[in-house]
Specification:
The complex is a heterodimer. Chain A has 10 helices and no strands. Chain B is about 60% helix and about 0% strand. The chains are: A mainly alpha, B mainly alpha. Chains A and B meet through helix 3, helix 4, helix 7 and helix 10 of A and helix 2, helix 4 and helix 5 of B.
Chain lengths: ~210, ~180
């Protein structure tokens, strides 16, 4: 009986901690984790897993590998969080790790010419793809057009040079500021702006013929 | 504003980060230049397409796999820490052993262990041949006594033992 009473007393407390963590900003969650609160790490995973997955996937174009790399990001965060400079933004640090891993993956691929971005994308089964872009009430030919357009957009991003693509995704998909992008990609502000401008122009040029 | 200037500042125009005056100049250029207006529209439309790409979600087993990998990482870290600790211990034992052996070695060199007794060199002279001439009036007595006996017993024996003198005449007299 005493145990049950204790459990009932603990559960609401656990729920409260989770709610507090959910309401806290990244810095507070990191502090909680470093203070021994293991649930804080789950909160960080919850916050970043989808964002990082999309960022890495758009950069390397392979969903399975992207998931592996996101997991690798979290393992590194778990191991090295005590070394993180808390005067800086946690999100910038996480994206820096993710960006470096994605870059390494692309570098490894370029050494192995058998695995190409386009090949990976074509091998990806249509059934596995999320369908949020489509409206089930649409007519089949509309759905086809939308899916086709999405493929074109994805392929167009893949055609951008790696360093342009990275900056482009961080800005357009993740909404990072120029300064944050400069920190994540380890470039100066001028380079970021120039790359972003070029990436946007190239992307528009590649996509333009399909939009009319 | 010319087209080159417009293209260079276009990213800031799209991001709406230009100062007011610049913004107005860019807007005016669009109204005047059809090519730049087309470019601006193309960039904005393509960006809209990209930004509206569907977000992908982690697969069903993602969390479980992550948990497992985190657990593996924790175990690996612990194992590494333990092996590091045992390596340190082994190194400490080895260093201590070397120190102790060294100390023992040095100590042994300083200890006086029994050695062969070395006497100082002696100058010896060869004995002269022939019988010794006895000059003293009292005869010198040579007593053969078995070794290892107390002195008083030896004295008793000495009384009973035949006395030999260096000179044969004296021996005969003594008898």
């Amino acid at each position: 009986m005493a145990n049950i009473a204790r459990k009932q007393a603990v559960q609401p407390q656990g729920a409260t901690v989770r709610e507090q963590l959910r309401a806290a900003d990244d810095s507070a969650v990191v502090t909680a984790f470093l203070g021994g609160e293991e649930r804080a790490f789950s909160e960080l995973v919850e916050r970043y897993q989808t964002r990082l997955l999309n960022f890495i996937y758009r950069t390397i174009g392979d969903r399975e590998k992207a998931e592996d790399l996101v997991q690798e990001v979290f393992i590194r965060v778990y191991r090295h969080l005590h070394r993180f400079d808390r005067s800086k933004k946690f999100s910038t640090w996480v994206y820096t790790i993710a960006s470096n891993l994605a870059k390494n993956e692309l570098r490894n691929r370029s050494r192995n010419p058998l695995v190409l971005f386009q090949t990976v994308q074509k091998n990806w089964q249509d059934d596995d793809r999320p369908l949020q872009f489509e409206d089930s009430t649409s007519r089949p030919d509309d759905m086809y057009r939308k899916r086709h357009l999405r493929e074109i957009v994805e392929e167009s991003v893949a055609k951008l040079p790696e360093h342009h693509r990275n900056v482009f995704i961080l800005r357009e998909l993740e909404g990072k500021s120029y300064e944050e992008i400069a920190e994540i990609t380890d470039c100066n502000l001028g380079t970021v702006k120039s790359r972003l401008n070029r990436a946007r122009n190239s992307f528009a040029e590649i996509v333009a013929p399909y939009m009319d | 504003m010319d087209c080159r200037e417009f293209r260079e500042s276009h990213f800031a125009f799209v991001d709406d980060t230009l100062p007011g005056v610049e913004l107005v100049r860019m807007q005016m250029h669009i109204t005047e230049c059809e090519s730049c207006a087309r470019h601006d529209a193309a960039v904005r439309r393509s960006l809209m397409l990209f930004r509206n790409l569907p977000s992908i979600q982690p697969s069903a087993g993602f969390s479980q796999r992550l948990e497992q990998r985190l657990l593996d990482a924790r175990m690996a870290d612990m194992a590494a820490a333990n092996s590091g600790r045992s390596r340190k211990l082994a190194a400490t034992v080895a260093v201590t052993s070397v120190v102790i052996l060294g100390y023992i070695g040095v100590s042994l060199r300083e200890v006086d262990y029994p050695r062969d007794i070395v006497f100082p060199p002696v100058v010896a002279s060869a004995p002269s041949s022939g019988a010794t001439q006895i000059d003293s009036p009292a005869p010198e007595m040579v007593v053969a006594v078995p070794a290892g006996l107390p002195i008083w017993t030896a004295a008793l024996y000495a009384e009973q033992t035949a006395v030999y003198f260096a000179s044969a005449d004296l021996t005969a007299t003594a008898r």
